[in-house]
Amino acid sequence: MRVGSKVERAQAATLEAALDDLERRTRIAAASGRTGAVDLRYRTFEPGEQVIARSELRGPGRWRPAVRAGLDVRGDGSVQAWTGRVARAVVEPARGEDAYAALRRELT
Q1: Where in the sequence is the domain holding 11, given as residue range(s)?
Q2: What's the total number of domains in the chain?
Q3: H helices within the chain, ranges in order?
């Protein structure tokens, strides 16, 4: 979990335990942080374009994990699920799903 420059690491014995911990930490980050627009000379970044916290799930394996997925908390408080190593692919929620359920569906 990365919030700003602060990084926290945790391990879990099972995928379900890891997803539960990931969801808990991400919900806390989403509830506690929102940002305003960032205005640079050449571009303005709106809150929905900024990632203020990222929860990442990797494993098994240390050097080349078989799974790499996570949740991004945007500056407007929205949460977006993703998968992938270098290029992240957004996991679109199905009807009636939130980002947390969409990530669970994708990984199980």
Answers
A1: 2-107
A2: 1
A3: 15-32, 99-107
Question: CA 103, CA 81: separation in Å to the nearest integer?
Answer: 6
**What single-letter amino acid sits at 15?**
L
The one-digit pLDDT tens for each residue of the chain (108 residues) are 888 788 999 999 999 999 999 999 999 888 887 777 888 888 888 878 888 899 999 988 778 888 899 999 988 889 999 999 888 899 999 999 999 999 999 998
The pair of three-digit structure tokens given for residue 23, joined into one six-digit string:
């969801």
Angle in degrees, CA 67, 19, 99, rounded to 5? 90
Sign of the torsion formed by the C-alpha atoms of 89, 93, 98 and 100: negative
Q: Length of the chain, please?
A: 108
